[in-house]
Amino acid sequence: MTESTAPTPSVRSIAEFAVAVRAELSDLPADDVDDLTDGLAADLTEQAADAAEAGVASPELGAPAAYAAELRAAADLPPRTEPAAGARQDSFLRRLGTRARTQRADAARGIRQSPAGAQLLDFLLVLRPVWWVLRGWAVYAVAEIFIGRSVAFLPTDPFRTIFLLALVTLSVQWGRGRWLPWRWLTGFRTLVSVCAVVALPLLILVAAHQLSYQNTYAAPSDSYVSPGLVQNGEQVTNIFAYDAAGQPLPDVQLFDQDGQPLGVVDDSPNTPYLSQFDEAGTEHVLVPSRRVPGGSGWNVYPLGHVASEDVYPRDALAQLEAREATPFPFTQVQPLVAVSESAAEPESGESTAEATPSAAPPASATEVPTPTPTDAGAQQ
Amino acid sequence: MDTTQLLKGVLDVAVLAVIANDDGYGYDVVRRLRAAGLDEVGDASVYGTLRRLYTAGALSTYVVPSDGGPNRKYYAMTAQGHALLAEQRGNWHRFASTLTRLLDDPASPIQPRTPSSTNGDPL
Predict the structure, then answer these.
(1) Which residues of A touch B46 (CB under 8 A)?
(2) pLDDT digits over A177-214, tens only?
(3) Do A36 and B48 touch (CB under 8 A)?
(4) Is there a contact between A245 and A292 (Cβ–Cβ < 8 Å)?
(5) Cα angle, residue A147 at apex, residues A207 and A172 outer, rounded to 5°
(6) Do A72 and B48 touch (CB under 8 A)?
(7) What residues in A contact B31, CB-CB < 8 Å?
(8) ipTM confidence
(9) Which pLDDT tens digit goes with each residue over A85-118?
């Protein structure tokens, strides 16, 4: 071959030759092609340099097809099943695959031109097993959604654990080019990979969210926001106010620190009633005060009470006349003791004179509800 | 005689022999073979052979980064490779001596009959 008079092949023609050889091998599994041609351009370049040093003409590169055939024969790989020229008649998918592989090879070569690029590429190559594991996990997570009908990203029982391990093992073996007895499996692997790449960002996002949710779940007060009023995890369904003298106060309006009505339901205008069961299993139905228009009197305590069996449909409850005053738990409680110069003293006892809220508790009570608009506005 | 035809049968053992004591990458192996006198060895044949020996478990590979240049995939012998080399070396010696005797003295092709002979194994 050394007697060939062909001119020294340029780097470019060597690269083109290598790509052409790859194309000739394109019917083989991608890993075989990689194994056979990964160092090809470098080897050919070095060979040309050797020849130039020795002062002889470079060996002719010859036909890529012949070169590829020699590679195959020596590597004990089957000869090309159809002539390379027939590639035009190949299926769209195969042509796409061939083109993608060629472009990948070109891109890799381009990146390797610079030392930094080569280093980066090597670094990423080392990380390839991570991708294999992630691919197995992605298939597991998707299967969990479609077959297991749950969004669980880590196995919860031994069967699932084995399933996940099997998928990861398969993915890793596929990544190493093993366990691909049929050629169509290579295409299937590509399909799985593409799907995994698409699904992974979403899966990781959801998994991360789920994980952080589980972490906060340890502190129940943070994680689960129950609607309405809660004390020590128990829902508060009614409030009974007593004045300083220990007498029950009807129709007390409560507001929170932001000036928001302090209701036992969170969507007061759209909640016609609140149903609860006592220990005996009897249903009690609570309704908002009718003295606030629009059914949003959920912050007026104690809430009205309706015997549940009386009324159907329940929607009519809010308009119902038949409500009764909820009985106070105590007819009276202990009066407050005067601390010093008596701010709101026993004379408020008279204000228990039921009903008239306008004439209600004296002193400070009249000032409190009014700041609502400004305060609430400032908070939002 | 077309030595490339001859080479085909012995390329395995030749490749194993040049790697046995010194790991090498693809073209490195080609260069060693040519330096040893096998001028006509085709590089594609060598690369294919390396790949086949690797698949068969006789060789292992590792990547050596090179400054400025492309990375090199080096081939090294495995224990299996050494065993294969030893076996093929024995085969070759028997075959070569048989053929040498045959070619040097075609008149007495039935040499194995003589009891004093070294019991030339046909292969």
Answers:
(1) 74
(2) 888 887 788 888 888 999 999 999 988 888 888 777 77
(3) yes
(4) no
(5) 65
(6) yes
(7) 50
(8) 0.75
(9) 444 455 677 777 777 877 887 788 788 778 888 8
